[in-house]
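Form 12-C: Joint structure prediction
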Amino acid sequence: MDRSTPAAAHAMTIAGSLPAFFVLLDLMTATKTKTVLVVDDSATMRRMVIASLRGLGGGISFEQAESGLSAIERLSLRPVHLVVLDLNMPDVHGLEVLRFIRSHDAFGSVPVVVLTTRDDAAGRDAALGGGATLYLTKPFSPESLSLEIGRLLESA
Amino acid sequence: VTSGPFFDQFLDEYFAECEEHMAKLRHALLGFESGARPRGGEDLREVARALHTLKGLSGMVGYIEVERVAHALEDRLRSTGGAAPRGATLDALFRGTTLLERCLVARRAGDLLPDVDAGIDDVAAGMSATPALTPQPGGAAGAGGVGGGGGAAGGGDPAGAPDATGATGVAVPAGPVVQAGEQVLEFRFTPDRQLAERGVGVDTVRVRLAAAGHVVRTTPRVLPGGGVAFHFVVVTDESFQPPDEWRADGIDWQSAGGTDRSAAALASLSSAAASAPSTNVVRIELARLDELMRLVGELVISRARLDDTLRRGSGGTVGNGAAAAWDAVAEVNGEMERQLRDLREAVMRTRLVPVGEPFERMRFAVREVAHDLNKQVETRLEGAATEIDKLVVERMHEPLLHLVRNAVSHGIEPAAERVAAGKPAAGLVTLRAAAAGERILIDVEDDGRGIDPDSVREHARAQGLIGEDASGAVSLLDLLCTSGFSTRAGADLASGRGIGMAVVRSTVHALGGELHVESEHGRGTRFRIELPLTLMIVDALLVDVAGQLMAVPQPALQEVLQIDPAGITRFENNEVLSYRGGVLPLVRLADVFGLPAGPRPAAFVLVVGSGAQSLGLLVDRLAGLREIVVRAMADPLVAVAGIAGATELSDGRVVLILDTGAFVRRARGRAAATEYQFTAEA
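Section 2 - Result
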């Protein structure tokens, strides 16, 4: 699993040398920026999603999780304003992540955008029935993804 | 819906990731075929996920045909209802995977795309109409139900919920299956920010546990305070004892089965911990490594310049007071040389990848060709851990594929013929890699019928590639590598679509390597590829040829002789030297490059090549040993036979690097074919 993309490795270096960095990050998060957590086991896909959302401006910081488990972990550690969630992942399926989020007050009502390759009625029903805020499919266009998610973030 | 041009920026990454998924796919299919499936549906899930991701990514970059083939494979895989694919289904998966690979190769090269419609029908052919899918959204981890809510309990209920989620719908065993000599351990990992800052998270913990045993179930639980903890159920070897350091990483554990804490168990502890694979893998563009290598190269040149300055200065120009300081600088310089060597080696090592994965692709190809031709062929991989330059691996892919396909289609006989000849019915293709100093050896060997040199000559004559009277004048390898040569009237499907031996040899040569063949009629054929470990920096001997400085890479040098020019004798049209009880043909480099002979007679001979193909290169003077940075002459207009590239010396002079292999090849071309070593009765 490609946990250490160059960006992640860099972030870890900063974190290691400057524990205060995270405190600062929290302050920023609380006041200005909104955090979007992109959950997908494909590193390329995560980068595609983030690149598509760059147009939303500098007020958003992106974080990545490459598995359902690390998504849950990440959600439990610091506030997240929106989750972009893939369904088909190795350890915990996206629907299970969704169910976990929705069944625990700790995570509250964070908007979850399910973004999956599947485009069938059953998948859509399961995701929306499970509490997904929005159900989108791959392949997506950067414009439409950015539009939809920008709209959700405004009201988040 | 797609936005191709926008996502084109991810194409490099896309191909790199596809390569990983294809490797998983090939590995799993070969595993299914060999029947070596120790733990249930894990491979099946992995394959399903690889295909699903391939499909999704391909859609994003607008490679619709890749998306469609992946989708067809996914459907076919699911048609087994959770069982390992076998028989016709497995064959269809193999064919589809090959098609997928061809699509990706074509896309990458910008070539014409293969027709996928027929292939997709072929993948689906004979598939039962309704896939009997077992819904299991949680995969391996789903079994305990996430969040206390409850996915379907493990084991899968055939009449359960509709398949809402698709690709990972594969049954998993309900509880841990424990065999003799195994134990069940329950781990609990509680993440926090401090751990996250240290890079310890649920994913790394999971990898750690997976290295220790078999992770049967992972369940997240919400803690009373609002935090989260993860529970893992792991089946490990009875002797496994989690290292105490794990507790500092937020990991707790208890035994759920019997634990044996014998001395032996403790002894195996360290090795188990050491073998845990690191998750800290970074994917780096090759171009960046090249840049790093180039910078190291420049550093090497700078240090050599410093070396020169120091040497000039030591000739008495330095006053007594400065002598001590001078010595200190010289000492640091010497230290730097060693450090630079280490650095150079470390950078070089970053470019190396184990040859195992490319070999596995060859195993896949063997299987495919053997299947097409209805032959029984086994593949043996040796030295799969041998590491080789990533660039070399990529360039050698097609040539190796060609050799492997040839081995199966031309080398290995049909079973009946083999049995009649007293051989086992199944043929054997061996792929072997080994490091030999600064060289890498790759063998493609078969135990088939061997190459009949007479029949090869006959074919070559019939195709007008050699004259009627050219018997014995051309080596077997030269014949095989003649462009247009084929032993089949019409190239067959299996090997006919290959690139041809001519391209195999020219690719090997372009990489600074050599191709050899040994064949024994009735016993088999071995192609040996000799490649440099790295292409960038080598130790070289500087020589003076008629006032011109040239560099000879040291790995190519067998020996350097100082000779008495009177000892050279003329034999027919060639000059030779008596050498180790035989004769050594000589080549005057000054003549070859059209340089006027120097004032002094050539006094040194560089022995290059090996064994019977040894050759002596006559030079005027030796000018020292240097570490040189090889810059290949990429421009074909500049390319000169016998020159491999150029390098810059510490004083800024540009020196040409000799391609000794070219001289050996040329000499061999002139020599009789009988000189070439193949053991057949030529």
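Section 3 - Comments
Chain A touches chain B through 61 residues (CB under 8 Å). The radius of gyration of chain A is 15 Å.
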